[in-house]
Write a structure and sequence with these properties.
Elements: H1 2-19, H2 21-56, E1 61-65, H3 71-82, E2 87-93, H4 95-106, H5 110-119, E3 126-132, H6 138-147, E4 154-157, H7 159-204, H8 207-215, H9 220-260, H10 266-272, H11 274-299
Antiparallel strand pairs: 1-3, 1-4, 2-3
């Protein structure tokens, strides 16, 4: 008996979906907008992480080393720095590497190369490039450097010259994260209200039909069920349409977007994370449509 009732509910839900095609289309469209926003936020958050990481890589300090600093001691000191929890990364550029890097960068500038040739010997110093996790950790790192046993072998620490830039970089990344989060919350809240109102309107249009069903003794399951199934169908169609739109858009515009987004390949990212994106869409679309249908039938139609 229960199995037969479920079949009837499923059949009635499908009939409701294509019989009330206008309201079903409206619900599906609103859900597509919502799922597109959810998917976009997922992609944008990962792009933000990619962008922030790229920006933060530029926030570092350099310790220039005197020629008396033996390379084996430099490598030992580098290891000491890497063991400190506030330090994210330490890169060592030797005197010769600095010289070669300069030549590769300015090889086509004849005036600079001529001036370098007149200098004769390698005028560059070896250096340690140090990146911290947070902006406020650099001052402690500099204090450690100045108090270390090798401090006399440091030619220069450029922290105080770079401090304003470092502070601005970390302020920018924090602002990007906050703006993205707040904008996402506001937008999703607005779209959720639209979904609830669209579903409520669709059910309100069937209020006379629901009244008749109640008069003939239909159970709450049989009254609510078709609307819930109708909402689930709208959610499933919305998921399919959303993913097709995203894949098609990224497939067409991915090369241009990758250039604009600094190497972030949205098509590759979306494709490789399609499984988790689908689960997020499924949880969002189905749960919202089911809850909206359930609440609308209970609160507004007094079922």
């Amino acid at each position: 008996m229960f199995k037969e009732n479920i079949k009837r509910v499923l059949k009635a839900g499908w009939k409701n979906f294509y019989r009330n095609i206008a309201s079903s289309f409206a619900t599906t469209f609103i859900l597509v907008v919502l799922l597109s926003l959810v998917s976009f936020i997922f992609v944008f958050n990962n792009f933000s992480d990619f962008l922030i990481k790229g920006i933060e890589e530029k926030a570092d300090i350099s310790v220039f080393l005197s020629d008396d600093f033996l390379e084996e001691n430099v490598l030992e000191f580098k290891k000491t720095l890497e063991d400190r929890i506030e330090i994210q990364e330490v890169q060592y550029v030797s005197k010769n590497e600095a010289y070669q890097n300069f030549i590769e960068t300015h090889s086509e500038d004849e005036a600079i190369m001529e001036a370098l040739g007149e200098v004769g010997d390698n005028p560059f110093l070896g250096s340690l490039s140090i990146s911290a996790w947070e902006a406020d950790q650099y001052e402690g790192i500099v204090t450690f450097l100045e108090e270390s046993e090798y401090s006399s072998l440091f030619s220069k620490i450029d922290y105080y010259q770079r401090k304003p830039v470092i502070d601005k970089i970390f302020s920018l990344t924090t602002m990007i994260s906050k703006i993205g989060f707040v904008s996402a919350l506001i937008t999703i809240f607005i779209v959720i209200l639209l979904v609830f109102n669209t579903v409520r309107l669709a059910i309100f249009n069937s209020s006379e039909e629901i009244g008749v069903m109640r008069l003939v003794g239909a159970s709450n399951l049989f009254i609510r069920g078709p609307f819930i199934i109708q909402g689930m169908l709208a959610g499933l169609f919305a998921i399919l349409i959303t993913n097709l739109l995203f894949l098609l858009t990224f497939w067409v515009f991915s090369p241009k977007l990758e250039t604009i987004l600094g190497g972030f390949n949205v098509l590759s990212f979306f494709g490789s994370h399609l499984g988790i994106i689908f689960l997020i869409q499924l949880a969002t679309g189905l749960s919202l449509s089911v809850v909206a249908s359930f609440l609308a039938t209970r609160k507004y139609l007094k079922v």
